[in-house]
Structures are given as C-alpha cells and as structure tokens.
Design goal:
alpha/beta, five-stranded parallel β-sheet, single chain, 20% strand
C-alpha cells in the first residue's frame, strides 16, 4: 500500500484553485511562482480550475502575465468554460437569462450561447446566475419575478459563499443565490466545483492518470469535495477560507493539509529530490 509520501512524489498533474490558493486579489501567494516552474521543469502540467466566472481565459492569461507568469489556454478550466459546455448540451439554441458580469456575458456570447438580461423576454428557457460585482437590486428583483411567475430551469456557476480579496472576503455566487432563495424558495443546480465535471474536463486535456493528479484548493465544500467526487487526491491550503477548526468539524477530509502552496511545493520537492 503506497504511503502518502510516495503518492505525493508521483503527482504530475496539479489542478489548482486560484482565489485563496495561488492568489489573494491581485497578489501572488508565496511559493506559487516556484511551484509552477518546477511542475513545468519535471514534465508535469498545472491547470487552474476555478469557480470564478467573472473572467474569460483570455482575461486570466493577461492577469497572470502581469504577475510575471506565462500561461496557455490549456492551463485553465474555469466555471464559465464548464457552464458553456453544460448550456450547449442541455439548452442548445435556447435563450438564457443571465445575472453576471459584462465579461461573463461576453464570454457566453463568444461561444454562441444566446443570452439576455431582459427578464420579460418570453423566449427565456433558463435562468443562470453567476458572481456579479455589477449586481443591482433591479437584477435581483427581475430574477425573483422570473422564477416566481414561470416554471423555468434555474442554474448557477458555483456555490461559493465568499470570494477572497486583499482585505478579506466579499459575497460570491452562492451568497447571491441564498439571498434569492429566501424570496423564491428555490436553489439552483450548481455547475462548478464540487461537481466533478471541472476535473474531468481538465483530465481530458492531459495524459496523466488519476493517481498522478492532485487538486489543490482552500475550500472543503468545493475544492476538496470536488476531488473526492472525481476520485483524485486532494490538498487543502490554509491561505483562503478553510481553517483547521473547519477541518476538524467536516466529514470531507483532504488527503494533505499545508499552510500554503509554498508548503506543498517544499514537501513535493523534498520527495522529488529522492527519486
């Protein structure tokens, strides 16, 4: 039976959350740059798997470039990407009412998803809610009216309650949906983590086994649960939402716990040097 030590040293595909794991706001967390470079040097690959749907892959590549890290499209599988695939499969050619940022709506349109922000359009086939830092009470009211007056499908990009920033946290998509639920008594089907589809998409883009794959994140109920449901090992970092107390009280237990990605990098490197 392989020990955790031997399992960790064999990891080559690293599925990394972004907010709270490798970045806080626009600040890169210590150890990230070194970890990403070493993954490349050893012939592995990193893929950012994020529930943040406010940015397109193009936007993310530009953001990391500003931080001095060059990436390719294959380095990202975002909630917006997985949402596009879901919409194409289940709502092809249907009109989608969207609560989300201009960037998110632009991304949907880029992939030929029919979208509207007019809640009174009679062609609407589904309501889609995402994180929205341009949220207004009018959007909330229109969404509630649509979900109350019509029998219509209701989905959301991700269940995260909060999003980390440089100063702390702000409400995320899950919190927006909770607010709506108090009015309409409905919760959406969430597409992003912890649903395993985001891991499956990432693995389809690569040639590594589940045994060689590690998902790294800062949340038990999204990142770690996602890995468990997808059948891959998980590592929790304590630079984001989850605390040691949360771990003690949770049924969802990570395979590894590190203070930060720097701790993961150093331990992985220690085993690497012994190969």
């Amino acid at each position: 039976m392989p020990t955790k030590k031997h399992k960790l040293k064999n990891k080559r595909l690293f599925l990394l959350d972004i907010d709270g794991t490798v970045c806080k706001g626009k600040q890169l967390i210590d150890g990230t740059r070194e970890m990403l470079q070493e993954i490349k040097d050893c012939g592995g690959r990193f893929v950012f798997v994020t529930n943040n749907a406010t940015k397109s892959i193009k936007d993310y590549r530009a953001s990391f470039r500003e931080l001095g890290i060059e990436t390719e499209e294959f380095n990202f599988v975002t909630a917006s990407y997985v949402t596009v695939q879901y919409l194409k499969k289940h709502y092809e050619n249907q009109l989608i009412y969207v609560v989300g940022t201009d960037s998110f709506i632009k991304e949907l349109k880029h992939h030929q998803i029919r979208v509207t922000t007019d809640a009174h359009n009679t062609e609407i086939g589904c309501v889609l809610v995402s994180y929205d830092n341009q949220l207004t009470y009018k959007k909330i009211q229109d969404t509630c009216e649509l979900l109350t007056k019509r029998e219509i499908d209701y989905i959301a990009t991700n269940p995260d309650y909060s999003c980390p920033t440089e100063f702390g946290y702000i409400p995320d998509c899950g919190a927006i949906c909770e607010m709506i639920s108090h009015a309409v008594k409905k919760m959406p089907y969430f597409i992003g983590k912890p649903e395993p589809a985001i891991v499956e998409f990432a693995m389809q883009l690569n040639e590594f086994s589940r045994e060689e794959t590690l998902i790294v994140g800062d949340r038990l109920y999204t990142d770690i649960l996602c890995g468990k449901q997808a059948g891959v090992d998980t590592a929790l970092v304590l630079t984001g939402e989850a605390t040691l107390q949360d771990i003690e009280q949770s049924e969802c237990q990570p395979d590894y716990i590190f203070d930060s990605i720097d701790g993961l990098y150093k331990e992985w490197m220690m085993y690497e040097t012994k190969l």
